[in-house]
Amino acid sequence: MAxxxxxxxxxxxxxxxxxxxxxxxALIRAFPIDSVSNFGGSLFSVLGPLTRANRVAERNLRIAFxxxxxxxxxxxxxxxxxxxxxxxxxxxxxxxxVADTDRVQVEGEARLGAIAAGDGxxxxxxxxxxxxxxxAAVIVRAGVKCQVTYRxxxxxxxxxxxxxxxxxYGVRLFAPKGLDGARELMRALQRGESVALMNDQKFxxxxxxxxxxxxxxxxPGPSTFALRFGIPLQPMSVQRVxxxxxxxxxxxxxxxxxxxxxxxxxxxxxxxxxxxxxxxxVRARPTEWFWVHRRWPNEEYRRD
Length: 304
Fold this sequence. Notes:
The chain is α/β, with parallel strands linked by helices. The protein is built from 11 helices and 9 strands.
């Protein structure tokens, strides 16, 4: 009986959260894009510092930039909250942003065209930079057949709404889970389809590789796929170019991993190159990364 009640309460909470999501989405979509973006930035600049995530973000910034003084850390912390607020509210009207060709530039678009025309498949990699969902929209718009992966939300009702929202700009999402998910990605690559994975979040049990001079556990999947199929990693990133909700999506030079026959060592080398790419992008535009995630081992967050 207790388990049944717990399940009922959980479902009720999920339904209430979904109702709030619907109300917020309807309200946000009633306003101009830049007004929504500016409001999100202003709101999070006030609310963000009041949350526990603020301490995580500050610790991450100190890990990444140990030479920065308190004034610089405070500046970066404030600006990343503004960026996060903008990005999260913009997600609810990303279809309108994608439809406005003046708002999204693509650098390296010819590379995507070549992949779509047969210079593929590839393993797309990136991180949570600014309006990161734009990368999937640009890949799809270029005609690349691609399995775009994501982490499903805990609330299945909200997750369904998020998937429908992304469907508006052409992105079909695939949430891989365990070995079955990995096998499905393998089958997609065998069919000649590309796969797209975010590779900047902590992955327990992953390969330990340096990130800002500290070891960070990183998913080996992208490097494993690239080596198994003899295909390149294809990095992408997003930059906010402003004012307001205007962006540049960059298709970087492909990363071709060396296959020495020592698969474990080759995967580790690939992971190191992925982390180096992420670090370079973050150093270039530090306020546009997702700092509120515990990227490094737990020990790093127990230090003074």
